[in-house]
Design a protein that fits this description.
Blueprint lengths: L1 H59 L4 H15 L4 H22 L3 H5 L1 H36 L3 H7 L13 H4 L7
Helix pairs in contact: 1-2, 1-5, 2-3
Length: 184
């Protein structure tokens, strides 16, 4: 009788342990999915601003059609990206296209002083900051989720219930890798 009671207690402890690990993995997975939705909200906001920005610039720079087309195509690819990696690649392309657009703006002093343009440029800069924060939060969530899956004994439970690692959202910022130039 005592042996059966000990076996039941051991079994109950194991079940509670497995359920605790499983629930922890589900919690982290849901947090990472929520974090991705926050990144997506900010990216959508960015995509909504870009056409207005392009239209404002078009009014001043009618002969810069190639730049406008590049921005529009990059935005479309970013909107339609499927995986996190595709999204990162599309965002790299869009960032480059926006840099070209702002280079065009430098040639038009009247445009740089236009209130609508300045307001949209400020809104886009604010959105870029929110995207960076949301991306960092997402990547932190993914790190916790992936780590929980890789450490013992959670890795056993994760494999039993087929939890899959998630990929980080990385946008390559070429300017961040270049050395800072200081001019006096």
């Amino acid at each position: 009788m005592t042996g059966v009671l000990v076996l039941l207690i051991v079994f109950a402890v194991i079940v509670v342990f497995v359920v605790g690990i499983y629930n922890g993995l589900v919690n982290l997975r849901n947090r990472s999915e929520n974090a991705w939705s926050q990144v997506d909200v900010q990216l959508r906001r960015r995509y909504d601003l870009i056409p207005n920005l392009v239209e404002t610039v078009k009014g001043y720079a009618k002969h810069e059609k190639e730049t406008f087309q590049t921005v529009t195509e990059a935005r479309s690819k970013a909107i339609n990206a499927g995986t996190v990696k595709e999204q990162g690649d599309a965002e790299n392309m869009l960032s480059g296209a926006l840099k070209s657009l702002f280079a065009v703006v430098e040639s038009y002093p009247d445009l740089k002083a236009n209130q609508n343009f300045l307001m949209m440029q400020e809104e886009l800069a604010g959105t870029e900051g929110k995207i960076a924060y949301a991306r960092q939060f997402y990547n932190d969530s993914i790190m916790k989720f992936n780590t929980k899956q890789q450490v013992f004994p959670s890795n056993i439970i994760a494999n039993m219930f087929n939890f899959q690692e998630k990929e980080y959202f990385e946008i390559e910022e070429a300017a961040a890798k270049e050395p800072v130039k200081v001019k006096f």
